[in-house]
């Protein structure tokens, strides 16, 4: 396997499939119930609000990718915004870690749906064991080569979008648009709704995968932005359709109780046993393929950060090139998170890391690059403000419900930036290492 990047190897359709393929996975399969637990009966609208915040955030990535389409992706944006500094390296590493965290979320979602389909307990050691197994499977597919990953990603993206859309339409057709979720008693207020947006935003963050492939997309100065916009729009429609379908099939208390497998729980009353098993099968395909695409994207990002001298690297005696090694690092970290954290904590940790990184990107572009890339300052500041409100609400809710995950997130951020500070002082980059097309 090579770590080289090929220009014009991805069409606009390929890029859209990549973005939607990474987004539609745990985003809708695992997070629907968690969002409902925070937002209450208005949880479908949390997806709309999350899409709005994501749209403001995507503006920055589109402007930067149109101006500097690069295989460096997030790392390139941060390095251009801040230079080879602790802030740039730390934020880039936070992004990579949030993507690895998402892999463990997807892996545990796969295990949860599989056990639900087999009618087996979902609070046993089997969840992490199955989760680690599917992570290893994703690693084996990636080791087989980029062509296998690319072909499978496009095929699975079509199956996921089509299959989940069919589920939503069928559930609404069978149950009617009665929206049973309004009958629940859970009401967390405005703060809960804003907090739920953090998880909704997490369901959309897969669009950044497109940014990381900018140099390989045909006509990247135009198509990177187009792919980001289309993939977010497609996912918004799919998420809304599914959220209303789940809300029309189940009362809110049942959605919250089955938050780790809400789609499967909603399929049975609406579509019967056959629909239930088809939904479980769809969930397994969606999570497994999403994990394969995510492992590919994260290992690629870590390889680029290594080449940009933003993180250290050691091959530990392993053969192959840098991306072979980063594949191993990716699956090992994801497996450890899968073993030690449940779905709720995994999602929370990913939301904390991603939102902070996102704010740092907007601020860096606002201060140093908005003129060069033609970005409107008020849009960048609005993106920062929206992220800040959502992050504050989410942290407040989590501090009341699970203070340990807030402590873990803060400590993790301190360690990341402290580590990068020491690394860059001891190994200063030889030059401003740019990766552009």
From TrEMBL:
The chain crosses the membrane at residues 12-36, 42-62, 82-105, 125-144, 151-173, 193-215, 227-246, 276-299, 320-340, 346-366, 378-397, 403-424. Gene3D superfamilies: Amino acid/polyamine transporter I (1.20.1740.10). It comes from the Bacteria. The keyword Ribonucleoprotein does not apply. It comes from Antarctobacter heliothermus. The lineage of its organism: Bacteria, Pseudomonadati, Pseudomonadota, Alphaproteobacteria, Rhodobacterales. GO terms for molecular function: transmembrane transporter activity. It is found in: Cell membrane. GO terms for cellular component: plasma membrane. This is Inner membrane transport protein YbaT. Keywords: Cell membrane, Membrane, Plasmid, Transmembrane, Transmembrane helix. The keyword Membrane applies. It is a multi-pass membrane protein.
